[in-house]
Amino acid sequence: MDRVLTNLKMVTMQPEAGYQIIENGMIGIRDGKIMFAGHADHQDLHGHPDVIDCHGALVTPGLIDCHTHLIFAGNRANEFEQRLNGVPYEEIAKAGGGILSTVRATRDASEDELYDLAVQRLNGLKQDGVTTVEIKSGYGLTLDDELKMLRVARRIGEMTDIKITTTLLAAHAQPPEYNGRSDDYIDFVCQEIIPAAAREKLADAVDVFCEGIGFSTEQSQRVFTAAKAHGLSIKGHTEQLSNLGGSALAASMGATSVDHIEYLDEDGVTALAANSTVATLLPGAFYFLRETQYPPIERLRQQKVPMAIATDFNPGTSPIASLRTMMNMGCTLFRLTPEECLRGVTCNAAQALGLQGSRGQIALGMDADLAIWQVETPAELSYRLGVPDLIARVVDGHVFPLNGDQLNVN
């Protein structure tokens, strides 16, 4: 083993129920993978060159933010004020605000500018123990600008202390150039943008905003079909503002996740369960938009649909770069348990990205992506906000401490 973490309380988050806490634990790492995860009893570490004493700290899988719009320029604080003065989100969007206002600013920004802005936002997620982040495009809505956003995301992924997955969301809104011609724009997405993103290996997945102010189920199906033809996985922004059946469609076509889902009905839940599609909950947008329609949490539980939680970090409806805040909101707004919330940002979030075979739990052969916390119980991660509980993150076995003195890391 290259590195050993010992004297820790391990929260494995493997597929079985419960946290699966291992007291007096030890994690052995080689070549960025977990080679041992269990009790430290009777393990002879004498003479091992790299042993890190965690001093009884709690260790979880590194947290995963499986839905973000991290790359954009400008901000929409003015729209925040409009909504608080009673203007509906749909009205703001139809008047050229909403997504399109961010599109204009993002098109005007250079790759370097977008990179610097995104890295600053990413720092907030890192402080919450996040080791993997999904980043969507969707604020370019031209071939060049969508690819520009994805190139920035790939560049962020070159950082050694974070892992990035990329999602093409060209079908996020109808661009002004295609006003009144949404079918023509979908043709452009399917025939030009998706093939280019796949050819340049810039996207891991393709997403669609299937909604009355977005795109229809028929248009979404065309995008999903094109994505799969180019070897890309699919996801959906679905049932956020109404029930169009987008979740059931996406699930039937093999989507790894459907996200938002406040208006998901019984048939939609059944479709998710039948196709092993993750339901990604975005409590930040629910909170920020002051929504009143709750996701069907109990139905999802009854049909054993895995639930993920993500920040949905974006300038218009969830400008909150804190995954632990989302965990707290999952408990307080959606009545999830702390265990469900921790699963939502570890093993279930990994599944939402199609990464369940490598991340999101502490087990043999998994990536050595961990978060080390100065807390007594895992429930504290959902319970408390604003206290710097994170000691260090581990990415591919490399330790990135917030307080190196606590771990004696050189």
Features:
cytoplasm, 410 residues, alpha/beta, seven-stranded mixed sheet, eight-stranded parallel sheet, 15 strands
What does this structure look like?
The protein contains 16 helices and 15 strands. It has helices spanning 77-84, 89-94, 99-108, 111-126, 143-156, 182-199, 217-229, 246-252, 266-275, 283-288, 297-302, 323-332, 338-344, 347-352, 380-383, 404-407; strands at residues 3-11, 21-30, 33-39, 51-61, 63-65, 130-136, 163-171, 205-210, 233-238, 257-260, 278-281, 307-309, 370-373, 390-395, 398-401. A hairpin with a 2-residue loop joins β2 and β3. It is globular. The chain is an alpha/beta fold and 410 residues long. An eight-stranded parallel β-sheet has the order 5-6-7-8-9-10-11-12.
Summarize the structure.
The protein has 410 residues and is α/β, with parallel strands linked by helices. Helix content is 35%, strand content 23%. An eight-stranded parallel beta sheet has the order 5-6-7-8-9-10-11-12.
Discrete helix count: 16
How would you describe the shape? globular
In whole angstroms, the N-to-C terminal distance is 18 Å
Number of strands: 15
Hey, roughly how much beta strand do the residues contain? 15-25%
Radius of gyration: 21 Å
> Which sheet architecture does the biggest sheet show?
8 strands, parallel
Name the strands of the widest sheet in spatial order.
5-6-7-8-9-10-11-12
List the helices and strands and how they pair.
Blueprint: E1 3-11, E2 21-30, E3 33-39, E4 51-61, E5 63-65, H1 77-84, H2 89-94, H3 99-108, H4 111-126, E6 130-136, H5 143-156, E7 163-171, H6 182-199, E8 205-210, H7 217-229, E9 233-238, H8 246-252, E10 257-260, H9 266-275, E11 278-281, H10 283-288, H11 297-302, E12 307-309, H12 323-332, H13 338-344, H14 347-352, E13 370-373, H15 380-383, E14 390-395, E15 398-401, H16 404-407
Parallel strand pairs: 1-4, 5-6, 6-7, 7-8, 8-9, 9-10, 10-11, 11-12
Antiparallel strand pairs: 1-2, 2-3, 4-13, 13-14, 14-15
Helix pairs in contact: 4-5, 5-6, 6-7, 8-9, 12-13
Family: Belongs to the metallo-dependent hydrolases superfamily. HutI family.
Domain Amidohydrolase-related: 58-375
GO molecular function, one term: imidazolonepropionase activity
